[in-house]
Specification:
Layout: E1 6-10, E2 23-24, E3 27-28, H1 29-39, E4 45-50, H2 55-61, E5 74-78, H3 85-93, E6 100-103, H4 113-124, E7 129-135, E8 141-144, E9 147-151, E10 158-160, E11 164-167, H5 168-174, H6 180-184, E12 188-192, H7 203-215
Parallel strand pairs: 1-4, 1-6, 4-5, 7-12
Antiparallel strand pairs: 2-3, 6-11, 7-10, 7-11, 8-9
GO molecular function: nucleotidyltransferase activity
Pfam families: IspD
Protein name: 2-C-methyl-D-erythritol 4-phosphate cytidylyltransferase
Length: 216
Amino acid sequence: MTESSVVALVPTDGSEEPGVLTLVKGEPLLTRAVRGLIDSQCVDLVIVTAPARRVASYENALLFPEGPSLKHHCRVVEDRPGVSPLRRAFDAAELSAEQIVLVHDALRALAPPALVESVVEAVRAGARAVVPVVPVTDTVKIVEGGVLTTTEDRAFLRAVQSPQGYTAEALREVADSPDPLAALGAAVHLVDGHPNALEITSAFDLAVAESLLESL
């Protein structure tokens, strides 16, 4: 693998409600998420972590009855006890410091290839870490002791999406952090996110995703 290559890490926690094997219009979220990465034409390898009981199921999700399989672009690696899925995926990638790494949430399965490209381009342009964001449109209140107190100024709020991009050197420093972006602080560069990159975590989100796919 060349130093200019891009590796995407897709750490998963094995949750089921909904999980990455949940079907949207007949395809698992994992399949759609990985296809979006590959269709960007700037990702050379995808590494997906999986609980031991689901390695075979995840691998099957990367096979297609028609057209080329995603499997030759991907590796599914088994989780290790006591090691976070992100650290496990990072170690399995065996990256050089100069490579670009994406971290993607498979529940954001409809993130468009153009979003992937914009994140990679920002890292190539010199950013150590990049995150796509969208404005927060809801009114956000602070609640203390069950009582509404202050209202957050939406001008300063952004919702964070994925894929997030890093130099391999930067991600190595923070891969064990519960919040890698916060650990890097001011080093994080922002790019415009996309409405389709919603996190699919409920039956309502699944219905929205189905509707989006019907409109494409």
